[in-house]
Design goal:
- It is a single chain.
- By secondary structure, this protein is of the alpha/beta class.
- It has one domain: Spore Coat Polysaccharide Biosynthesis Protein SpsA, Chain A.
- Strands 3-2-1-4-7-6-8-5 form an eight-stranded mixed β-sheet, sandwiched between helices.
- Strand 2, helix 2 and strand 3 form a beta-alpha-beta unit.
- The longest helix has 17 residues.
- The C terminus is likely disordered.
Length: about 240
Amino acid sequence: MLSIIIPTLNEENYLPLLLESIKKQGFLDYEIIVADAGSKDKTLEIAKKYDCKIVPGGLPAKGRNEGVKVAKGDLLLFLDADVVLPENFLEKSLKEFKEGNLKIAAFRLLPRRKDKTTYFLFDVFYNIPVFFMEKTLPHVAMGGLIEKKIFEKINGFDETIKIAEDHDLARRASKFGKYGVIRSTKLFVSERRFKKEGWVRTSFKYFICDLYMVFKGPIRSDIFGFKLDKYFKNRKNKL
């Protein structure tokens, strides 16, 4: 079984799109776990409508860890609430994961809005660097697939990390099993993070974050002023 774990906070505009895309998948042996950080909108109502398990969450790392505690699957798929799965995403991902003998995997990210310029920006600022560093510096963002036994071996997400806790997980997990970037499919993602702060500023922030992690280790101080609801509060689905 595959356990799909989604941390949420006031995601009524995005969560239905993700859950509907999961529902349309050909692969059916899965469960969906929503780890909610105290939503005040219709997030929980939507999760119940799609028969999701619901557990108390918190910051993303906390929510994902809480989700794993009730997960029945031997594979874990972590998804941000504002992503959408393309057709046959689960079937293709799991096949490549198994055939490549992977233990943890990331995905190519593309915007939901079909725009050549935005596609180019995603490739330049994320996809190409991630592919280039696949063998030396693992990355996972907005979606990651990992064997549960590896996840448990490394004690899951480090809840003391303020930002890029998913990259940290990938780098710790890759010491115990093969990491790779799935090539047979991709994740469609929201542009809200980039619209909020701008492409250059957001990309530069994560570039500096990567450098910090390489030379000093995980970021456990609030050097970027990161807050959970920074991108969620009063957001409307404009995509």
